[in-house]
Amino acid sequence: MQTKYSWGRVLNAFWRALQMTMRGQTYTPPAATHPELRAWIERAKELVQDVFQAADANGLDESARKQRSLPLEGRPMTMQTILAAVQHNLAREYPSLLDSGLEHSILTLVAFNMNDHYRLTKLAESLDDTTSVQSAVRNLDTHLASMPQTGQNNRPQL
Asked: Is 86 helix (H, G, I), strand (E, B) or coil?
């Protein structure tokens, strides 16, 4: 479904851009919202990399992670899929939600985070045979569980 553009809005934007250009002004984008959440996301990305490095160092390379499966939400899910999903959410979904400016974007981010937290908790429980990898997964899981509060959300504690 395509969105129809209002010619009035397009012409108004063009006119304002032309006026700014004639005055020698440049567009300054608004400051990033929720810096505490953005810092939390960046730290989580580092912790995901720590999990991958710990797994690789302990004989759980990508092919081994694809073989290691556990039942989640009524279906088998591999270690690689769980970690890749968390990595994807941190790299793409969470920042996109913060940038969207939508009314319930923080609530949606909390829901994504709860799913990631649940999957990592179950993954950590299944890694009794590799304690260093289990420790790295628990560090990531603990970090996800400590999502900073914002003024817009009254989220439940994980």
From this structure: helix
- Please indicate, yes or no, if residue 98 is contained in any of the structural domains: yes
In a domain, 52, yes or no: yes
User: In this structure, is residue 86 part of a structural domain?
Assistant: yes
Neighbour-count burial of 3, counting CB atoms closer than 10 A to its CB (0-12 exposed, 13-18 middle, 19+ buried): exposed
pTM: 0.77
Token pair belonging to 114:
């709860």
The per-residue pLDDT for range 1-58, each reduced to its tens digit, is 445 667 888 888 889 989 999 999 887 776 778 899 999 999 999 999 999 999 999 9
Does residue 69 belong to any structural domain of this protein? yes
Containing structural domain, residue 65: 35-145
Question: Hey, how many other C-beta atoms are within 10 angstroms of the C-beta on 11?
Answer: 10
What is the count of structural domains for the chain?
1
What does the alpha-carbon distance between residue 38 and residue 44 come to, in Å, rounded to a whole number? 10
The rounded distance, in Å, linking the Cα atoms of 62 and 78 is 11
For residue 86, give the amino acid letter. Answer: V
Eight-state DSSP code of residue 33: S
